Amino acid sequence: MPPGVVAVQILFKAVGEDGYRRWLRGELGVVENLTVLFLAVSVVTALRMFLLRKRVASPLFGPFVLVMALGCFFFAGEEASWGQHWAGFEPPEAVARRNDQGEFNLHNDPFFEKVLDQLPRNLLTAAALIGGIAAPLLLRRRGRPGPRFEGGPGGWIWPTMVCLPAAVVAVTVTLPEKLFEALDREVPYLIDISPGETKEFCLGLFLMCYLVTLHRALKAQPQARAEPS
């Protein structure tokens, strides 16, 4: 799916801009809505693991997956503008006036933008680079089969190779836009595919793949026991 979402957008642009904007781009487009779906699955998966936290020896596992659930819930809510475009309601005038896109969310508000938009995006990009690309390749080279729940967080916190495609595209999809901007040239029409939305799509998919594979590994090891308090 990660390279596929890029290929499909290029294909739609080649056919026609109207179809591309109608079906793929924007708040009601496929890319944006799939991002929210990935994050919703991530929330449910993280909460299910929280209920199974006593199977893991590390006391950090429960707080970790709970934070992941809350973070994915907030990410999904902000992406969907908390249902504004689905329900068709208008945000309060005071909110719309301050919001860069006139939407019912916080990450487009000038006061919160650096903390709730740029900072989380940069942290997730760093997580994709380190945890989604470097760590799986290194662990595969060392022959580690997958998450281990008997010890500390070092045994289960790192993503597996399943997360690699989404992480690679998330890290690289905005590079063409930055390159052409540095060269003071316009992005070629076919690859002008809203890299921000595509990056968020891949970050949402990265989080879902990470949490789903972690949950599957946990379900496969029901005999793990928590350390005595």
Strand content: under 5%
Binned, the helix content reads: 55-70%
Judged by helices, strands and strand pairing, the structural class is mainly alpha
- Net shape: globular
Q: Total number of β-strand segments?
A: 0
The overall average pLDDT, rounded, is 87
Regions with little confidence, pLDDT below 50 for 5+ residues: 224-229
- List the secondary-structure elements in sequence, H or E: HHHHHHHHHH
Rg over alpha carbons: 19 Å
Number of domains: 1
Could you characterize the architecture of this molecule?
With 229 residues, the protein is mainly α. The protein has one domain. Helix content is 62%, strand content 0%. Helix 7 packs across helix 8 (164-172). The longest helix is centred in the middle third of the chain and has 29 residues, at 113-141. The N and C termini lie far apart (43 Å). The model is unreliable at 224-229 (pLDDT under 50).
How would you sum up this structure in a few lines?
The chain has 229 residues and is mainly α.
Give keywords.
mainly alpha, globular, single chain, 229 residues
Note the topology.
Layout: H1 2-15, H2 17-23, H3 30-51, H4 61-79, H5 84-87, H6 93-98, H7 113-141, H8 164-172, H9 175-182, H10 195-219
Helix pairs in contact: 1-2, 3-4, 3-10, 7-8, 8-10
